[in-house]
Amino acid sequence: MLEVVILGTGNVASHLFKAFSEKENIDVIQVYNHNKESLKSFSNLTNTTTNIQQLKKADFYFIAIKDDVIAEIAQQLNKYKGIILHTSGAVGINRLKHTANYGIFYPLQSFSRNTTIDFTEIPICIEANSAENLEKIKTLALTISKDVREVNSEQRKALHVAAVFINNFSNHLYAIGAEICNEHAVDFSILKPLISETASKIQTLSPYEAQTGPALRNDHKTIETHLAILSNKHKNLYREITQSIQDLHGKEL
Amino acid sequence: MLEVVILGTGNVASHLFKAFSEKENIDVIQVYNHNKESLKSFSNLTNTTTNIQQLKKADFYFIAIKDDVIAEIAQQLNKYKGIILHTSGAVGINRLKHTANYGIFYPLQSFSRNTTIDFTEIPICIEANSAENLEKIKTLALTISKDVREVNSEQRKALHVAAVFINNFSNHLYAIGAEICNEHAVDFSILKPLISETASKIQTLSPYEAQTGPALRNDHKTIETHLAILSNKHKNLYREITQSIQDLHGKEL
């Protein structure tokens, strides 16, 4: 049995708690948070504590708390022999260096509170301070995901930025699409199949191959028509992304 | 039996040909293109012609040819009594006004040559020069799609721009993600589950609700870390989209 303590009660903490709890060979023996209120939803399921000095002895301690305080929390865990892990894309492994055994367990996915997620398909990026610890982290990660990859801190930070473009920024483009629909009294739901198809194409084509549209075709007339329709707040972004597509594909506007 | 003539041999023409050919009550009796070579793949399946003066009598003529020449092609069809349709998102219905019966049949999807598409789920935006023609177009559209909506030319042009943000521009963000991966020797495929999840969330949440990330949280530290990692060619777009997210959500950077 692998014993796990989770520090934090946010989205990543909650989803990890759920994924681990469903596995027979893993026991989440404790959840810590400084705020008692946020522990409520866990208190029927496992031991909880607001006192970081009273953590149980475990094989793994997950720091699933916001980036700013990871180093500070880690320092308070230096007496434990278990592996101290953080789950952040943006924080280097060296922030855990005051502990004896440490590593990274970064699930590359966007977690929302109320969505159910199948962890099996989520890539988990792992890193460790020793080959031995890397093996242990890998064994744990493979219990919940079939896609576990060794990724160093520099690569992981790059992935984190790439994820911002792919997830946060794409979502914002959907939001602009919704704004344009609202401005013209069109139901946004009509665009949902296109959103699905756009994402689905990338499973088989590279994004470079999958590119279509007036920017790629260098279709000035359509671009001008679009700029004329767009409200001022969207014109600039339309121009910038059009230019960026043309730069990538070697076109000149 | 509804008889259809298709003008054009590109992506939209090919996908419409396939969708209509599969229906028992629809007969694609002819495909026209000015270029003989491009008719080859249709010549075993139906009658083909390069002479626009020799089109057969049909219930519907689909002009699935590039936007610039729609009006010119339509003018050459003014002797036909069948309904003249174009399939473009960006061209107004008035470009068909020299014909007797006309309308729009705009499938809101991105078509690639070599992908199979289930038309059932593709929204079709229709418009016509009369209530009677609208009904006929609707009947035809409903044979291949379960989502047929009346959309006027102004709304359709707005949808076309929204589709550029949602499809072309999102795909370009995937391409930037792939570039960042290449620069740091990470396999882009690790981001594919995140791409799927980002699109999939929008089926149940509004894009406004689904927004996450450092721009929304106004997390300066992460934003600065990201800008430091990004190559110069991506910094500007990162800043612009971050700003646009903050404008939409009423944050100040």
Automatic annotation (TrEMBL), chains A, B:
Domain (Pyrroline-5-carboxylate reductase catalytic N-terminal) ranges: 4-81
Top-level lineage group: Bacteria
Limits of the DUF2520 domain: 122-245
UniProt cross-references to InterPro entries, sorted A to Z: 6-PGluconate_DH-like_C_sf, DUF2520, NAD(P)-bd_dom_sf, P5C_Rdtase_cat_N, TM1727-like_C_sf
N-terminal signal peptide: none
PANTHER family linked: CONSERVED HYPOTHETICAL ALANINE AND LEUCINE RICH PROTEIN (PTHR40459:SF1)
Name the record gives this protein: DUF2520 domain-containing protein
